[in-house]
Amino acid sequence: MGREKGIDTIFVGRPDKPKKRTLKRSRLVVIDGPSTGGEFLMNKERITIGRSSICDLVLDDPAVSSTHCELTMSEQGVLLRDLESTNGTYVGDIQIREVWLKPEMVIRVGKSRIRFESAEGHVEIEVSKREHFHELLGRGQRMREIFAVLEKVAGSDLTVLVRGETGTGKELVARAIHASSPRRQGPLVVQDCSAIPSSLIESTLFGHERGAFTGATERRTGSFEQADGGTIVLDEIGELDISLQPKLLRVLETREVTRVGGAKSIPVNVRVIAATNRDLRQMVAEGKFREDLYYRLSVVQIELPPLRERPEDIPALVRQFLDGYVRRRFPDEQRQITVTEEAMRRLMSYPWPGNVRELKNTIERAASLGNGRELTVRDILPESQKTPPEILPGGTADQFVAEGLTFKEAKQRVLDAFEAAYLKVLLDQHGGNVTRAADAAGLTRYHFRELAKRYGLRGR
Question: Is 98 helix (H, G, I), strand (E, B) or coil?
């Protein structure tokens, strides 16, 4: 048995084996309602309860929302959280937003009652010994658990769904999977579904024949054909128009594409990795994403934590970004740029709404504009250490180009600045009341609260 600093962990197996974190197993038993007698043994960290078939515990109860609530296991226990359900989640007679559960507590959702029980045994979660997985870096437990999953799935052809906030490294995960797979010598095609007009997305993905539509002056192969023998990454899959989703589903099932304006089915040998910053389960519940497509894409799910939830990784990331900057800027010199302790504390305490991408931009800008070989709070202050709504302007096109930002990165910075400012103004107008601010924004309370948390804004 061993203990890592700050967390209770039991390590199972020989020292040369990957470490494992163990969580106490629990059980849910439906004791009242249309699904009385149903049971679910919690064998993973996060499970959902609802009426939709995408949930882990499915209740045949019309008063229950499609995705009603979720339970998350950790070393501290099991946390029950309502997912903005229509009729609310109750423990006893008390309506809750989130609560730590104790054995024999009864959860009420709709007309159903569910008893939470302890169960024999433990859930084992492997923790990789690695601190790197290709371009990904993580010394903390959260990332090393993800590395353990990547080590297992990389060698297969399983479809993977990667979810996480903007800037958390979803594309890096896809590239790492490809680089570790038997397909590494084949092409890697990354297609951003949010950057293509809806009228062109079918042609972009599946190709078109000459004369298929106005402007189609020649035959064009689509992203799936280009990725033949390799991997295709469908970035921002949550932005894919629902009218095109049946066609994508058909391609995933048959591994054949038909170009727009064509009649011939063309076989494609590709591995599919999808990425999104949206909650596809919620989109399924809202009718904005096909349930069958969700199942087809989420054979393996990887959830990337935001940077604010893994501050222990920031010093190593800073060192990586500084070393990379020095190698590019001073390839012939033995030079090192360091960061003062106070500056590092500030970096680790900041919520980083733009996640790892924002941290990288901040460090490289500070290294470029700093006055010496040691970065101080003054050097990092302009980009990262003030209140986001006042100090994260969209900037100018010249500034973005000078910083080497891609179009997608520059656009995201403008959107981040707008979101942070918009949320702060609404919270100020409504005295910090999240419910009223969310109503004014036309968002669910849960969505508004998660966005506010992302930007370090506080409400009640």
Answer: strand
SS (HEC) of 34-96: CCCCCEEEECCCEEEEECCCCCCEECCCCCCCCCCEEEEEECCEEEEEECCCCCCEEECCEEE
Place of tokens 């702060």: 424
Residue 1 in tokens: 């048995």
Q: Which amino acid is at 285?
A: A
pLDDT digits 0-9 by tens, 117-173: 999 988 888 899 989 999 999 998 889 999 999 999 999 999 999 999 989 999 999
pLDDT in tens, 428-451: 888 888 888 888 888 877 778 878
Q: Is 37 left (phi over 0), alpha (psi -120 to 50) or beta?
A: left
Q: Give me 237's structure tokens.
A: 């899959």
For residue 246, count other CB atoms closer than 10 A to its CB: 12
At 21-78, the pLDDT tens digits run: 888 999 999 999 999 999 999 988 899 999 988 899 999 999 999 999 999 998 889 9
Cα–Cα distance for residue pair 442/445, rounded to 1 Å: 9
Instruction: Look up tokens 């004791």; give the residue.
Output: 31
- pTM value? 0.75
Rounded distance between C-alpha atoms, residue 128 and residue 144, angstroms: 5
In whole angstroms, give the CA distance from residue 79 to residue 431: 28
> In terms of DSSP H, where are the helices of 298-444?
314-329, 341-349, 355-369, 377-384, 388-391, 397-402, 407-429, 434-441
Report the SS3 class of residue 162: strand
Give the CA angle between residues 316, 320, 322 to the nearest 5°: 115
Distance in angstroms (rounded) separating the CA atoms of residues 163 and 280: 9
Backbone angles phi, psi at 300, to 5 degrees: -125, 130
Interatomic CA distance for residues 166 and 445, integer angstroms: 20
